[in-house]
UniProtKB/TrEMBL annotation:
The species this protein was found in: Streptomyces albus (strain ATCC 21838 / DSM 41398 / FERM P-419 / JCM 4703 / NBRC 107858)
Record lineage: Bacteria, Bacillati, Actinomycetota, Actinomycetes, Kitasatosporales
Protein name according to UniProt: Mobilization relaxase component
Region (Disordered): 167-197, 276-302, 537-580
Annotated Basic residues bias: 184-194
Extent of Basic and acidic residues compositional bias: 276-286
Source superkingdom: Bacteria
InterPro entries documented for this protein: Endonuclease_MobA/VirD2
One Pfam family from the record: Relaxase
């Protein structure tokens, strides 16, 4: 249940005209009264003998108790109370009870017999509007200080009592919700999201890793949105607003939204903070984007995975400003990943980025500069371009998603400690979408590894089991019972062929962060090992019997010896592996 206090006004009749009207887009259905201060107010909606002017005069009568110069100019109080889409439809009687609870909780009509005059109007299934005159029957002003917070607290109680969706308390940093008119318009146009929401996602994606105003507006133009810039007389750019080409008002003109009205962090000054901190820490010698070599999708995903891991460590031990910057920047990483993902993961990744957007803002101000690595990762993902979901690019997508799950769960834990209820819930929701994306991305790569692990000879399987028990004795039995163990066994064999100590590397991979939140410890360790050992994420890219060519593998004299040719039908990979 979402209560919203609107700006105080001075025109009671004007607001009643809106409440009892058809709405800006015919969205008001059967406007009628469900409650009032005395239970006997005229209802212009269902009583043919009542008019809106009658109701206005009744509500404003206490103003006559005051001298004209003592009457408040802004005397109209307006509260809307809306239920979630998933909630059951309440009856008029239930909405009336809710209205009486709200005016009592907010101090408008506390029940002492001298409260303000008010009326509650319902013109849709899911919400009511309460209009009140801010002068009590005794001529005094009501005590409605902090009425917004009072309404929120009462809403939490009502949700439990009426069995409604329980909303986490907000902190004022959420993006502006679409209005009823915007939602009805989207429904008529067959849109899944309102124009405001589509534009917010488009602008967020344009911001991901961007490093200048020119690049930002170029991305918006490429995305096909209309842009209007607000320029000072000096020529300085002050702000911007955007519109969809097919979202028009009644005059046939595009409906523009300023960046700050899409989300608090999408105003031009807040966006500038991101790239200004990038410029402050810019080092041409180490700037990857400054090079001429094109970043491949797989390279970008490996780099993003490494940057994510370093960021997770800071989430556990960094100060609040650092953590806030990293969480904000990770929203850019998820946006960039969703933008460049293959079709079979795109929807879930997009939904993950959409959910995490709420987790990326809080009242803790981000200390920009600590987020450079993540913003560079987002930039490289965009520069690397779309991944087709096959080969190394597809496998490194699974690797990155696996790490992203750990990051967003760590973010949820941090928000939980700070009592940021909405942000913590949003991060957990993002994790669920990431898990679904992982299930779409990973099996085609883990499957071949799993099969290779099953085909290992018994001596080799016992060898990999021994490595596991030596490296992580406390996790060994759980890992061995998982379906993913065979993929991990194959990866340990690859690690050993690459010249590493499997037990040592596995111990390092396991202690890099807790594994309690992992649905499959084996999967997590597979991706960590392949990244740490610099093995191909797509294990089928290199034949399993092909050793990694290292200096240690060279014969004396410096010349490499070609491996013997493989003859068809001479045994499985595992038998040849055991013979080597």
């Amino acid at each position: 249940m979402i209560p919203q206090i609107h700006k105080q006004g001075s025109n009671t009749f004007g607001l009643l005209n809106y409440l009892y009207g058809k709405g800006t887009h015919e969205e008001h259905i059967d406007p009628h009264l469900v409650a009032s201060f005395d239970g006997m107010a005229p209802d212009p909606g269902r009583d043919p003998g009542a008019t809106k002017r009658d109701l206005q005069q009744l509500l404003d009568q206490p103003l006559q108790l005051l001298d004209p110069d003592q009457r408040p100019e802004k005397h109209v109080w307006h509260l809307s109370v809306r239920n979630a889409v998933e909630d059951r439809i309440l009856s008029d009687e239930e909405w009336g009870q809710i209205a009486r609870r709200m005016v009592a909780a907010t101090g408008i009509d506390p029940g002492d017999g001298a409260g303000c005059r008010w009326a509650a109007v319902r013109h849709a299934d899911d919400h009511i509007h309460i209009i009140a005159t801010l002068v009590r029957e005794d001529g005094h002003r009501p005590d409605h200080h902090r009425s917004g917070k009072r309404a929120q607290a009462e809403a939490r109680l009502l949700e439990v009592e009426y069995g409604l969706q329980q909303v986490n308390p907000g902190d004022g940093t959420a993006a502006k919700r679409p209005t009823s008119a915007e939602r009805h318009k989207a429904k008529r146009q067959g849109r899944k999201r309102t124009a405001r929401e589509e534009l917010r996602e488009t602008v967020r994606r344009a911001v991901a890793g961007v490093q200048s105003e020119e690049e930002f507006f170029d991305r918006l133009t490429a995305a096909g949105v209309l842009i209007e810039k607000r320029v000072a007389p000096s020529g300085d750019l002050l702000g911007y607003k955007v519109a969809l080409t097919d979202d028009l008002n009644k005059d046939g003109k595009p409906v523009f939204y300023p960046g700050s009205k899409l989300a608090p962090d999408l105003s031009l000054p807040r966006i500038r903070e991101r790239w200004s901190s990038d410029a402050a820490g810019h080092d041409p010698a180490t700037e990857r984007s400054a090079g001429s070599t094109r970043v491949t999708p797989s390279t970008a995903r490996r780099q993003a995975t490494s940057a994510s891991w370093q960021a997770v460590l800071i989430l556990d031990q960094g100060d609040d400003g650092q953590v806030s910057a990293l969480i904000s920047a990770y929203g850019e990483v998820l946006d960039a990943l969703a933008k460049t993902s293959a079709a079979h993961t795109r929807r879930e990744l997009r939904d993950a980025a959409w959910a995490f957007e709420r987790a990326s803002r809080s009242h803790i101000r981000a200390e920009r500069g600590h987020d450079r690595a993540l913003r560079q990762a987002a930039r490289d993902l965009v520069r690397g371009g779309p991944a087709l979901g096959r080969g190394e690019a597809g496998a490194t997508t699974a690797m990155l998603i696996d790490m992203a799950i750990f990051f967003v769960l760590a973010a949820a834990h941090w928000h939980g400690k700070k009592e940021h209820a909405q942000q913590a819930a949003a991060a957990r929701q993002a994790a669920e979408h990431l898990r679904a994306a992982y299930q779409a991305a990973a099996p085609m790569y883990l499957g071949p590894m799993h099969q290779r692990g099953r085909n290992l000879s018994q001596p080799l399987q016992r060898k990999q089991t021994a490595y596991l028990r030596r490296a992580v004795p406390e996790l060994a039995e759980q890992v061995l019972a998982e379906p993913g163990w065979y993929a991990l066994a194959a990866t340990l064999a690859d690690v050993e062929r690459a010249g590493h100590d499997p037990a040592a590397l596995l111990a390092e991979a396991a202690k890099r962060r807790e594994l309690d939140t992992a649905e499959s410890i084996s999967d997590v360790l597979v991706w960590r090992l392949r990244r740490i050992a610099d093995l191909p994420a797509d294990a089928s890219a290199v034949p399993p019997n092909q050793p990694k060519r290292t200096t240690a593998a060279m014969p004396r004299g410096g010349t490499r010896t070609a491996p013997p040719p493989r003859r068809p039908g001479t045994g499985t990979d595992s038998s040849r592996e055991h013979q080597r």
